[in-house]
Amino acid sequence: MLSTRTIKVVYFCSDADKDKKLLEELEKHLKNLNRRGIIDTWHKSMIAAGKDIEIEIDRQLNEANIILPLISSDFIDSDDNWNIVAKSAMERHRSGKARVIPVLLRPVEDSWKFAFPNIKALPQNEKPVTSWRPYDNAFMSIAEGIREEVKDINRFSFPVKLPLQRIASLFKGAGKAFSASPRKSKKRSKQINGSAIAFATPLIIFVVGGICLPKLSNLLEIPSLQTSQTLVSTQNISPIGWIWIGKLDSTSTNLRDSSINPSLVPSAGALVNVDKPVNLRTNVRYSHNSRLPTQIGILKPDQKLVILQVKRLINPSSNSSDTQIWAQVGRCNKTCGN
Question: What is the pTM of this model?
Answer without folding.
Answer: 0.51
